[in-house]
Design brief:
215 residues, alpha+beta, eight-stranded antiparallel beta barrel, 9 strands, 28% helix, 44% strand, elongated
């Protein structure tokens, strides 16, 4: 260090290498640049290497900071799979009176990157033959009452094919609750109202089982 401070360019490079090996990349970069300014001709490869390490370290820090943020903020992450029986829904008279078309098996997933707020989607097959189906993406607030109960309100937009109609746009609004039991297994109950642009309103009651990763 005394030699480097007294202007010896080889010592400046050696100081940079020591700091680099110790993970102190910015200090290493300073010594490499000092060596360059002092006339060290072969130092550019060291400067390029340390700049690459600094960039990689900064990108890794951003990822870690974001992950730390998610780990502290996530309130509700999970999924539910269940049943909607449209025989008991109002305004669903366009469904054929046929045993194949009485229910739906939705898969509902949700993710909450911010406190008391979540985004999600549901995919539904409205028959055993996937001829009628719908997809709705949604978002909304949720509130965890306790370790075992979570309430939520959602609003969403999507599209679907209802029986023999063309693709229909869908607007959904609903309320629901998750009851979290042993090891994160969840019972979900939800009431929602779907408005199909071509067909009108249908109310639906969804019940399902799922898993909550965090809440």
């Amino acid at each position: 260090m005394k030699s480097a401070e007294n202007g010896n360019v080889k010592a400046m490079r050696n100081a940079g290498i020591c700091y680099e090996d110790n993970g102190e990349f910015f200090t290493a970069e300073e010594w490499y640049n000092k060596a360059k300014k002092s006339g060290y001709k072969d130092i550019q490869k060291d400067i390029d290497r340390i700049e690459k390490k600094i960039k990689e370290a900064q990108e890794a820090r951003k990822k870690n900071d974001f992950q730390d943020f998610l780990n502290t903020q996530i309130k509700r992450t999970g999924f539910s799979i269940g049943l909607v029986d449209f025989r008991y829904c109002r305004n669903a008279e366009f469904f054929p009176d046929n045993g194949f078309f009485i229910g739906a098996w939705p898969c509902m997933a949700y993710w909450g990157p911010f406190p008391n707020f979540f985004i999600g989607a549901s995919l539904e097959w409205l028959s055993l033959i996937p001829k009628s189906s719908s997809f709705v993406g949604f978002l909304g607030p949720n509130y965890t009452i306790s370790d075992f109960v979570n309430l939520y309100v959602l609003g969403g937009y999507g599209y679907g094919v209802m029986w023999e109609t063309d693709n229909a746009q869908i607007i959904r609004a609903g309320i629901g609750a998750d009851f979290v039991g042993w090891s994160g297994f969840t019972f979900t109950a939800e009431y929602s109202l779907d408005f199909y642009f071509d067909l009108g309103f249908i109310d639906r009651f969804f019940v399902g089982l799922g898993y909550t990763f965090s809440r």
